[in-house]
Structures are given as C-alpha cells and as structure tokens.
Amino acid sequence: MTIYGVALLAFCFLAGKVTGTLLGAAIGINGDVGGVGFAMLLLIFLNAWLKRRGWMDGPTTGGLLFWSSMYIPIIVAMAAVQNATAALSGGWLALIAGVAVTVAALLLVPLLSRIGRPQSTRP
C-alpha cells in the first residue's frame, strides 16, 4: 500500500532528525547536525533491506518514490539555506572555506569528465 511508503519516509525523517539533534548535543552545538543525511542513509538502507526480504511491493514503492521525489529537493534546499545563513553569520573564515571548496569542486569537473571517456587511438 502507498501509505506504507509514506510511513517509511516519515520514520526515516524523524529518526534522522533525532540522531542529528543528539549528535549536535553531544558535540556542544544547539541544533541538528546531519539529520537530513542520516535520514537519507536510513531510507536507502531500509529500502534495500525491505526489498531483499520481499516486503516492498509495487504500491509501497510507488508511494515511497512519489514522496521522496518531492521530499529530497525540498529538504536539501532547506538545509542549503540554513548552511548559507550560518556561513554568512559565522564570519570570514566560514565564507572563505565555502568559496575555496566551491572553487576546488569546479576545478575538478574537467578531471572527472575524463574518467568515463574512452581513450582515443592516435596513429
């Protein structure tokens, strides 16, 4: 049933938020640290585990895919806004670190694009 997919997604979200909040409290930060990432990992692992056991039928998978296709972009966008706000209020060091990582990622694009390309034969 479709509702089982939605329930699985909700469980993963809540478990991720709790885990992220507990991790934040453990390291002395008043907030969620990686809750969305924990939720995504838990969703991936539970989905694979349920499929291996044969407990994930078509309608359940459909409900999960429908809501996860809307859930993932929205949650990632919300996390990105929070990270940008924290970086801007965190001072110059956070801003410089963000710019450095972005530039490094952009410089790696040509290298990564060559990985899957077949080697050309020259005479």
UniProtKB/TrEMBL annotation:
InterPro entries: Maln_transptMadL (IPR004690). The chain crosses the membrane at residues 34-50, 62-80, 92-112. The keyword Membrane applies. One of its GO terms (cellular component) is membrane. It comes from the Bacteria. Keywords: Membrane, Transmembrane, Transmembrane helix. Coiled coil: none annotated. This is Malonate transporter subunit MadL. It comes from Neolewinella marina.
